[in-house]
Design brief:
Elements lengths: L1 E7 L7 E4 L7 E4 L5 H13 L13 H4 L10 E6 L18 H13 L4 H14 L3
Antiparallel strand pairs: 1-2, 1-4, 2-3
């Protein structure tokens, strides 16, 4: 489904930043325009991961968003094709044990990056499984 995202273009020192008007608290970034679609999909999957009874809202019409003051700072609009079938909103409860200091570090990192602890752990596991062996 096509969702409008607002891209803050980067430069040689900064990545392109992405905000999702329809998903408050969801953010993404990529160093190149070519990498944006994958980064956007990953951000949405992570944002909705392990959120019980989460309902993915319908896209807001671009005409409505483009006149809002929050989106008048030189960014550009992109219609992102988000594969909603890859969003697994049915949580599975796990019982794991971690050192308390690690849990505090995870929580601090997750909060700073607008994520839940579960979302962070899911993202870390996905990245670890995708890393070259």
């Amino acid at each position: 489904m096509l969702y409008p995202v607002y891209v803050h273009p980067g430069d040689k020192k900064h990545a392109h930043g992405v905000t999702f008007p329809d998903f408050p608290g969801c953010f993404s970034a990529a160093d190149s325009w070519e990498d944006l679609p994958a980064a956007i999909q990953e951000a949405v999957e992570t944002h909705f991961h392990n959120e019980p009874n989460a309902a993915v809202p319908a896209p807001t019409p671009l005409e409505k968003l483009s006149v809002m003051p929050d989106y008048q700072d030189g960014g550009v609009w992109l219609l992102a094709d988000i594969d909603l079938s890859r969003i697994d909103i049915k949580p599975v409860r796990l019982n794991i044990s971690l050192p308390s200091s690690l849990v505090h570090e995870i929580d601090a990192w997750a909060q700073h990056n607008h994520m839940t602890r579960s979302g962070f752990l899911a993202l870390a596991a996905q990245r670890a499984m995708q890393a070259p062996k």
